[in-house]
Specification:
- This protein is mostly helical.
- The chain is built from nine helices and no strands.
- It is globular and about 75 Å long.
Length: 204
């Protein structure tokens, strides 16, 4: 092969490689956008929405949604895992930005978002948990670990009580979002979360 031919081949190969990377990056962005829209729809839904309704909200055709998420279960799993990741990694990220007490209060809001999203896809989620596709016990352990990270930081800073456990907080949050779901009575939930935070602070 001549030097000119070799140079041309490398140029074509580089262009194709660049186009492939750009295409993959676009696919990742599109998937993330669809995931964000689906999460928002699940969070605000009174009943589990159809795939067509989610595609319509995202402004795409149903085929585009199915290309990224071939089944309803794959979409539900992606939303569920994304929300859990936001909670588990979010604890340390919030501590980098806020005081321990402030991080705990903001984490409670994230927990509420997760509960709201779960409620919007509950029927499919329960089937997946029963079939073993999603392990509820593992998720619970991850969330309790995240709460413990926040509690430990709060205790060390003297901002949170030393006699409260992660299980206490998880149970309290589930109770709050059961009686005051974010989709319908967000203001009430916020007030109850603030009262819970007051109870978590050490008595001076």
């Amino acid at each position: 092969m001549s030097d000119r031919s070799a140079t041309g081949a490398r140029s074509v190969s580089g262009r194709v490689s660049g186009e492939t990377r750009a295409s993959r990056a676009d696919a990742v962005r599109n998937r993330e956008q669809l995931l964000a829209v689906a999460t928002r729809v699940f969070m605000s839904a009174e009943a589990e929405p159809s795939m067509r309704a989610i595609a319509r909200e995202a402004g795409v055709g149903i085929g585009t949604l199915y290309r990224h998420f071939p089944t309803r279960e794959s979409l539900v799993d992606a939303v569920y895992q994304d929300q859990v990741a936001r909670l588990t990694t979010g604890a340390r990220e919030l501590l980098d930005e806020l005081s321990p007490a402030g991080a705990m209060r903001r984490w409670m809001d994230l927990f509420g978002d997760w509960i709201a999203a779960k409620n919007g896809m509950l029927d499919t989620l329960l089937v997946m948990i029963e079939s073993g596709e999603i392990t509820h016990a593992h998720t619970r352990d991850e969330l309790l670990t995240a709460v413990t990270v926040l509690l430990d930081a709060g205790r060390a800073a003297g901002e949170l009580r030393s006699d409260v456990t992660a299980e206490d907080i998880a149970a309290s949050l589930i109770g709050i979002f059961t009686v005051a779901p974010r989709s319908g009575r967000g203001a009430d939930a916020g007030r109850l979360l603030n009262l819970l935070m007051d109870g978590l602070r050490p008595v001076r």
